[in-house]
Amino acid sequence: MGTITITIDNSTEERFREIVKKKLGTRKGSLGEATTQALELWIRHEMQEEIAKDALSLMETGHRFGKRMYKERKDLYDR
């Protein structure tokens, strides 16, 4: 378990503490638990953005599926 010291503005801290108090209570460790959840959510969001950017760049490159070997659809079937 790691320790991180951060500095945030007062209004954000107060709102965060209020929500933690409502959702998780005032027991020992609830602030750390909520902070861990918030960080994990942020990490997932950032990873999804990276995955989406990679997918978009792949789509932009396009794909070559080869040369079409038939002129019409009926050429594919023996009907």
What would a concise description of this structure say?
The protein is mainly alpha-helical and 79 residues long. The protein has helices at 10-24, 30-61.
Which range does the strand content fall in? under 5%
Number of strands: 0
Q: Which series of helices and strands comes N to C?
A: HH
Number of helices: 2
User: What is the helix fraction of residues, given as a range?
Assistant: 55-70%
What does this structure look like?
By secondary structure, this protein is mainly α. It has one domain. 59% of the residues lie in helices and 0% in strands. The longest helix has 32 residues, at 30-61. It is rod-shaped and about 75 Å long. The mean pLDDT is 90.
Features:
79 residues; 59% helix; rod-shaped; mainly alpha
SSE arrangement:
Blueprint: H1 10-24, H2 30-61
